[in-house]
Design goal:
mainly beta; 2 domains; five-stranded antiparallel β-sheet; five-stranded mixed barrel
Length: about 150
């Protein structure tokens, strides 16, 4: 089943609780990274990009972006601030995951920079956290501790 929510293309308000651990990481030049969205670290370069459901082995979950990085092709390597762990929950879009289909915590995988899904519903099954509470039919609170690299 396809994701029904579109990827984010503008900054978002970060909806989380009790942020604890932040890190700075180098971002890809000539790209726009939005605050409040899920990020990946590319395996080949180690640089941060917007999360997508990419082919397995090309990127790993890096955290949630705190800062906005504008697309600039000036040869510099911009730095993006990431939330990677701590006592907080992130509100994200879900598609095939429903409250009725879940018993206990459910591990979820990157679908795009604002959405997660369960194993078998994504191409890469790149883990990014687990659902701890459902908000409504299309949103859930996700905890990312131990998933960001």
């Amino acid at each position: 089943m396809a994701i029904t929510a579109a990827p984010v293309t503008a900054d978002q308000h970060i909806v989380c609780r009790n942020v604890v651990h932040r890190v700075g990481a180098k971002a890809t030049d000539n790209t726009t990274l939005y605050s409040g969205t899920l990020k990946c670290r590319t395996v080949s370069s180690g640089l941060i990009v917007e999360a997508t459901d990419v082919a397995a082995g090309t990127a790993t979950f890096a955290g949630v972006g705190v800062t906005h990085v504008s697309a600039v092709n000036d040869g510099t390597t911009p730095v993006v601030e990431l939330l990677q762990s701590g006592d907080f929950l992130l509100k994200v879009n879900t598609s095939t995951v429903t409250d009725a289909g879940v018993s206990g915590f459910v591990e979820v995988y990157l679908a795009d920079n604002n959405s997660v899904d369960v194993a078998g519903q994504t191409v890469a099954d790149n883990p990014c956290g687990y659902i701890v509470e459902f908000v409504d039919a299309s949103h859930a609170w996700v905890r990312i501790d131990g998933f960001a690299l």
